[in-house]
Structures are given as structure tokens and as C-alpha cells.
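Q: Got a minute? One more chain.
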Amino acid sequence: MPETSARGHGRVARLAVVGTLGLVVWSVVALVTVYLQHDQGMEQQLKHAKVTRVVSGDSLEITSVRQRLTVQLVAVQAADPGTGCLADPARDALQSLVPVGSTVSITEVRGAVPRPGLLAATVSRDARPVEVELMRTGLVAASGLDAPGLPDLHRAADDARAAGVGFYDGREPCTVPGQVHDAVARVEVAMPDLQQPGPPAATEGARLDEALVAATRLRARLAPSPAPPTSSDAAPPPLPPEWRALSGNDVALLRARLDAAIVGGQAVRLALAAGTTR
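A: Always. Here it is, folded:
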């Protein structure tokens, strides 16, 4: 009798353990199902979001049915608001593409790391990718992050480059082409006319030296990409978008312009030093 009772208790204990494990498994499955349903529901809501504010050239605030989010356009990079190159025109361009009150679709890009507090996503309006349209203005650069569904991003950058707008506009002092234009002009203005009679003024050589130093420093910044840092080297700071926007061909052409100005200026400087002027 005691043996029979012990067997009964053992069977009950085993059934209790099996029941507990079953309850745990069911709970885990239920939680995963709820999470997936919530996640899918959130993505569905973000496909019909309203723009409430354009924060910068690559971020905007949106509202959906149950939430308010600040979205970072993951595929492009604009300058920091207020301080960066063409930051205000970039914000205005995004504002024109997605005005406050317009309906947009938001697709989260998993694995991308946005700025703190932002959701990394691609944005479209009327089935047109906003990042591609923004890239055509030349006011943003490709971020380098993988964004599926944007095959025309680099083609849009080529359109901006061909039109000479945004970061490719040499008339804008903050752009790299604009900096090169100003550096070349400064060297040309500083070079005295060697055909004029009389000795050159002492200040002419100093002014030319200053212009050559500035042009040489800018040329050094346009050097080809350095070797990757070793584990002991500090990581270099990220490039601002006006520099990220440059292609290898852009850099080569800008360096060639600086090289021509520097060589010409150095020849004049040597002539001044040799006393063969005027």
C-alpha cells in the first residue's frame, strides 16, 4: 500500500512538471505572437503617417494612430541645423517635398543606427522615395548606410553634380568646390604683374605666400583616402556631408585646379625671390 501511494504521488508530480512546462511554452509563444502582431501593426500604421514638423534636412516628426516619432532619413545625410553647410536650404527642400500635414509612408530599416532618439527609416510620399528627390537637390550626401529600395540614389547624385547645385555649386563658399574656387582666386589675385616696371612691393610676396599656404592646406584635405587606422589609432572624425558628397572624380578635378594655381603661384614667387621682377 505505501508503495502504491508513492507511485501515485510520483505520477502526480510528473504531471505537474509537464503541466508547468507546457504553460511556460504556451506563455512564450503567446508573448512572441503578441510582439510580432504589435510590430506588424506599427509598420502598418507608419505607412499612413502625418508630417507634423521638418526638423532638419534629413529628419522629420510624424504622427501615426498611436504614436509620435522623429524619423531620420537613413539613406542620406544633411548638415547639422544652424551651423553646417547649406543646412537651412536642405531643411527647406525637405519641407517642400513633405509639407506639414502631408501623408507619408515610413519603412523602418532594421540594423541601422540612427542618431539618439530617432527612428532610422526610409520615407516616401505618393510612392516616390523622398531621399531620391532630396538627393537631386545636391543638399544632402549619401550616408553610406544600406537602404533597400533606393536604387536611384546615386543616379540622383549624378543629376545634382551635372547641374552644379547644392554641394557641387562652386559659388557657395561653404562647399568644397566653393572653397577651391576661392583659394584659386586668392592665389591669382595675389600674384603681381611681372611685366610692370619697378621692384615689387614687399607686401606682394607676403600676400602671395599666404594664398599659397591656404591653397596647399586645402589640397592636402583633398588627398586620397588614407589607409585604415590600426587598432592603436584613434578613429578619424566623420566627414561632413559637403565632403562626403564628393566622388573620386570630383576630388581629382578639384586637386588639378589647385595644382595649377599652386604651380603658377610658386613660379611667380621664385621670380620675386630671384629679383627678376619689374
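A: Confidence is low (pLDDT under 50) at residues 28-45.
Q: Perfect, thanks.
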